[in-house]
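Much of what follows relies on a compact textual record of a protein's fold. Think of the row as the fold of the chain written in a discrete alphabet. An example makes this concrete, so a full record is given next.


***
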Amino acid sequence: MKKNRVRELYQQYVGGMEEWQIKLAIARMMHFRVPQEAWQDTMQELAIVVHQFTFDPAKAHAASEKTILCRLMDNRIRMLARSNARRLAMLARLGQMTLNEEDAHTPDDIAADSEVRQLVDTLTPLQQQVCEQLMNGLGEFQIAKALGRHYTTICRNVRHIRRAFADRGFNPWPA
């Protein structure tokens, strides 16, 4: 069964990637024990890595193209695993925060919601976008990539958002 799934996955990328790149991507997924239900999405991410990669022997410091591409794939798989772990943790927290129907709209909840909305309205448009991406569970690197901004710019804006929430008595990122 597993061999058939691997063969199907391999066949989907023939022509889009070189044979050794497909085999390397599948091997890295196996090495990191990526669950079968995530193979399609992970392979698609690795195909993007392959297509964006350009090997420059002058900058390779004697490393082979395969070695460098392997490291890039490993980093992407780790990033996907961290993102998935954050998403699952957020879903678990949301599950713990569910309220009974009768107390779903307490005056304190409505006041806090209003205060958060007012706070977000005071942020710059970029900070509002960053805040939205944080609420969607993305990390700073992913936000930088999604918004087409430099990583340090996003980090600086996240620090500002955290300070703004902390100054109003909110602690959205407990230590």
